[in-house]
Write a structure and sequence with these properties.
heterodimer, A: two-stranded antiparallel ribbon, elongated, B: alpha/beta
C-alpha cells in the first residue's frame, strides 16, 4: 500500500482473488462430474416439459454461483389452454 | 535414469517455452545432461528460442514414425555441450503423436539424459496430455492474472488424473513457476500477489520470474535467458529455480519485497 492509494483507484487484485476463489470452488467439483446446478436445471425443465408444452422463448433460467450458496431461478410461462373444458 | 519434467500451463503465452529453455540451459550449465523436447507439433518454437532453427533436420514426429533415429534428431547446443534439443514437427499435426511412440522416445531419452524437459503446447488436448503423460515432475507456469490461474487449476486437475504416475496411484510432484511478475503492480494492488496465487492453487513454489525486457531480448537473439545474460534478474531467478529442482533448499525471495519506505512511496513511478 502506498500513499497514492488514498487518491487513486481501488486496488483490483483483491477482486481478482475473490472471483477466482468462487469460480474454482465450483469448477473443481464440476469438472469430470456433473454440475449439480446444471443437473437441477435440466431435470426441472424435463419434469415440466412432461406436463406442459414449454415455449423455449418463455423460459428464463438464472444461475448465480456464490462462495457459500448458489441459487437457481427457473421462471417458466405456462400457457393456459382456453379451449379445454372440464370433463 | 533421468527425471522427466513437463513444463505446462493450459493457457498460451504465459512463458512455457521461455521457461523450458531457460531451465534446460540452467541445468545443463551445472554439467547435467539435459534435453528439451518440443511437444508443440505444428507450431514449434523452442528451436527459435534456443537459436537452433536453422539446424533442424529431423523432428519428434520423424522419430516416432521411424523415419529417423533419435540420435539423428537431437540437436546439440553450440554454447553448452550438455544441452540438447529435440524439435517438434512444423509440417505435420499433433495426431502424428501416438501414445506408444511418445512412451518409446521418452523411455530412450530417460536412459541417456539426466533431465528430460517436455515443453507442452497450450490447451488440454492430445499434445498437452501426451507431454505430461510420463512426467515425474510438473512445472505449472502461471502469470498472476485471472485467466492464467484458472487454466493452471485445470491443468493441475489433469496432472492428478491423466499422468502415468497418477494412474499408478502415485502423486506427481507439482511446482508453481510464477512468471511475468511485476512487483510494483502487485504492491499497488493491481496484480495478484504471490501469496494469492499460492493460496488458490496450493502447490509449492519453484520460483518467481520478474517481468523483464531481458526475456524478450534473449528470444530476439535466440538464446535461453540463462545463457543470454546470466546476471539478469530473470536469469538469476531461473538459476535458483533449477537449483531447487535438483533438491537444494533455497528460500524464494519475492521481487520488490525488500523495498524501503522511499521505494514504497515512489514505487508507483517505477512501473
Amino acid at each position: 500500500m502506498n500513499i497514492f492509494r488514498f487518491f487513486g483507484k481501488q486496488a483490483s487484485a483483491p477482486t481478482a482473488r475473490e472471483r477466482l476463489q468462487v469460480l474454482l470452488a465450483h469448477e473443481r467439483v464440476s469438472v469430470g462430474h456433473s454440475d449439480l446446478l446444471v443437473l437441477l436445471r435440466d431435470e426441472i425443465l424435463a419434469v415440466i416439459a412432461k406436463h406442459v408444452q414449454i415455449d423455449g422463448d418463455k423460459v428464463n433460467v438464472k444461475m448465480e454461483r456464490g462462495a457459500k450458496v448458489s441459487t437457481l431461478a427457473v421462471d417458466i410461462e405456462v400457457p393456459l389452454d382456453t379451449t379445454a373444458r372440464a370433463a | 535414469m533421468g527425471k522427466v519434467i513437463v513444463v505446462t500451463s493450459g493457457k498460451g503465452g504465459v512463458g512455457k517455452t521461455t521457461s523450458a529453455a531457460a531451465l534446460g540451459a540452467a541445468l545443463a550449465q551445472r554439467n547435467e545432461k539435459t534435453v528439451v523436447v518440443d511437444f508443440d507439433v505444428g507450431l514449434r518454437n523452442l528451436d527459435l528460442v534456443m537459436g537452433a532453427e536453422r539446424r533442424v533436420v529431423y523432428d519428434l514426429v520423424n522419430v516416432i514414425q521411424g523415419e529417423a533415429k533419435l540420435q539423428q534428431a537431437l540437436i546439440r547446443d553450440k554454447r553448452v555441450e550438455t544441452l540438447y534439443l529435440l524439435p517438434a514437427s512444423q509440417t505435420r499435426d499433433k495426431d502424428n503423436l501416438t501414445p506408444e511412440g511418445v512412451e518409446r522416445v521418452i523411455g530412450a531419452l530417460k536412459k541417456a539424459f539426466d533431465w528430460v524437459i517436455c515443453d507442452s503446447p497450450a490447451g488440454i488436448e492430445r499434445g498437452a496430455t501426451l507431454a505430461m503423460r510420463h512426467a515425474d515432475i510438473a512445472i505449472v507456469v502461471t502469470n498472476p492474472e485471472v485467466s492464467s490461474v484458472r487454466d493452471s487449476d485445470r491443468i493441475i486437475g489433469l496432472l492428478d488424473a491423466k499422468t502415468e504416475k497418477a494412474e499408478r496411484g502415485e502423486r506427481i510432484e507439482k511446482h508453481l513457476l510464477l512468471t511475468r511478475y511485476n512487483p510494483s503492480r502487485a504492491e499497488r494492488g493491481d496484480m495478484l500477489k504471490v501469496d494469492d496465487v499460492l493460496e488458490i492453487l496450493s502447490i509449492p513454489l519453484l520460483g518467481i520470474i520478474p517481468e523483464s525486457m531481458d526475456v524478450l531480448r534473449a528470444s530476439n537473439i535466440g538464446a535461453p535467458v540463462t545463457l543470454a545474460d546470466s546476471h539478469s534478474a530473470p536469469a538469476l531467478a531461473y538459476f535458483d529455480a533449477a537449483r531447487r529442482l535438483t533438491g537444494e533448499a533455497i528460500p524464494v525471495t519475492v521481487p520488490g519485497e525488500r523495498r524501503g519506505l522511499f521505494g514504497k512511496i515512489f514505487g508507483r513511478r517505477a512501473a
